[in-house]
Amino acid sequence: MTTIKQDDLIQSVADALQFISYYHPLDYIQAVGEAWEKEQSPAAKDALAQILTNSRMSAEGHRPICQDTGAVVVFLKVGMQVQWQGDMSLHDMVNEGVRRAYLHPDNKLRASMVSPPIGARMNTRDNTPAIIHIDIVPGDELEVGLSAKGGGSENKSKFTILNPSDSLVDWVLETLPTMGAGWCPPGMLGIGIGGTAEKAMLLAKESLMEPVNIQQLLERGAETPTEKLRVELYNRVNDLGIGAQGLGGLTTVVDVKVAEYPTHAASLPVAMIPNCAATRHIEFTLDGSGPAVLTPPKLEDWPEVTWTVSPDAKRVDLDNLTPEEVRSWQPGDRLLLNGKLLTGRDAAHKRIKELLESGQGLPAGVDFTNKLIYYVGPVDPVGNEAVGPAGPTTATRMDKFTEMMLSSTGLIGMVGKAERGPVAIEAIKKHQAAYLMAVGGAAYLVSQAIKSAQVLAFEELGMEAIYEFEVQDMPVTVAVDSQGSSVHNTGPAEWRAKIAAGKNQ
Which of 121, 199, 395, 457 could be stapled to 114 by a disulfide with Cβ–Cβ 3.0 to 4.6 Å? Predict the structure, then answer.
């Protein structure tokens, strides 16, 4: 019999969540480095360089890779001969570990969990509860798999039940482009096949814990039907030309994982869940000898890539920005933002809508006239930081508020990640505004450009409050110009055609 101490599991969970907040899995970051080496799209190559530079900075500084430090997903395989020393339930032990990790004073992580899921949606303030899956297995050890799953990628999860005669590959290729770039490619795709609806989703999620090894598979050749499916999906998804951050390019995924389970003869359940550029997971085993020992990766094993400012980047004075200057920006222009930048996400936009509809107007001290709004929910600062990691959130969630903001507040532009939908693009074109894209997965790098931060309104919303940032040379790209032209439409189309042309030569 093995006896595992309650405190050992709590400490191991806390240590592991801190560990993965600033250390990418080395196999993933090396795969991104290989993607950077071969990338031919300048926009995608720049985005990959930011992701790689951000990863190294986070590893060196022990600060989060991404401001969205995720929902904690836990897979526990409990040996049937394991005994426990303690008085807490297994769920409570895990959640205490989560609590300690996310409230760590030297590297406080962003709490994103809200309860209840409908209605008040109040932040739990410590990122509990975790999503926990328990399996009782033979043996006398506890195997633990932890991931911190960001909302941008999780929101793009897809599920269907195909007819047994339908093509799974066709469904993936038709569905993936509809997911946009909010999942921050390049990442991994987890594909769950079989079982029932909930089993397929669980298979897909757990498959994302596996190592990145598609290149080894390509070198030795696929042998089984599952391996052949992985290779086909990997090649054909990358042929779509979606590229890093959806800007168009050669690498959309660095690996595809497939997990299977027997299913009903009348069914073919299929789940697809992406992992983002902030891929975070770790596995360890407890055998009763103490907490898990986590070995940091060697910094010299990181790809030797350092992002630098593009020589053609234009500096923008946000404190004297005019509609005329915004109208002069062209799709793909690289800008460096300087001055006062306001922030706001879903909850803040909802509050603004309620205030405007009630006739009360904007909160005191909030003025969007000729300003930009940054869609961000930052990590709390530590030490001398003005703000913690502060990368962009998915802009499409604010699409339904765009017309209101542009028509009623004096706002002339927005900053976020990924594409905008038709409703937002129409509003941008109508008001001759612009949408700028910052790189998702480069949160710590972006935060270095933020020199001061103060809450202007809705402080009770925590990370969703309205802040005023003072920024210096914050890098962004013009993603939608005042005429409604979107690089997230033109870029992938261009590179899909180039990839196809190259294969036909």
Answer: 121
Q: What integer is the mean pLDDT of 299-320? A: 94
C-alpha distance from residue 40 to each of 36, 116, 225, 278 (Å)? 9, 46, 32, 23
Q: Phi, psi (5° rounding) for residue 186?
A: -85, 140
Residues belonging to the chain = 505
Q: How many CB atoms lie within 10 A of CB 202?
A: 19
Do 17 and 72 contact (CB within 8 A), yes or no? Answer: yes
CA-nearest of 9, 460, 441, 17 to 244 is 441
* pLDDT > 70 in the chain, percent: 100
Domain ranges of the chain: 2-287, 314-491
Residues 6+ apart with CB under 8 A from 410: 367, 368, 369, 370, 371
SS3 category, 172: helix
Burial of 117 per CB tally in 10 Å (0-12, 13-18, 19+): exposed
Cα 453 to chain centroid, rounded: 23
Helix (H) or strand (E) holding 466: strand 466-480
Q: Which residues contact 19 (CB under 8 A, 6 or more apart)?
A: 282, 294, 296
Dist. CA 209–CA 211, nearest whole Å: 7
DSSP secondary structure code for residue 47 in this structure = H
Q: What is the pLDDT of residue 504?
A: 74
> Residue 173 has what pLDDT?
98
pLDDT at 502: 86
Please compute the mean of the pLDDT values over residues 154-182 and round it to a whole number.
97
Q: Assess whether pLDDT exceeds 80 at residue 484.
A: yes
Cβ(389)–Cβ(64) under 8 Å? yes
Residues 6+ apart with CB under 8 A from 460: none
Mean pLDDT computed over 100-112: 96
Residues 136-164 have a mean pLDDT of 97
SS3 letters for 469-484? EEEEEEEEEEEECCCC
Sign of the alpha-carbon dihedral angle for 87, 93, 95, 101: positive
What's the CATH fold of domain 314-491? Answer: fumarase (3.20.130)
How many Cα neighbours within 13 Å face the side chain of 446?
32
Backbone Cα Rg of the chain: 23
Name 193's bridge partners: 260, 270
By three-state DSSP, how is residue 488 classified?
A: helix
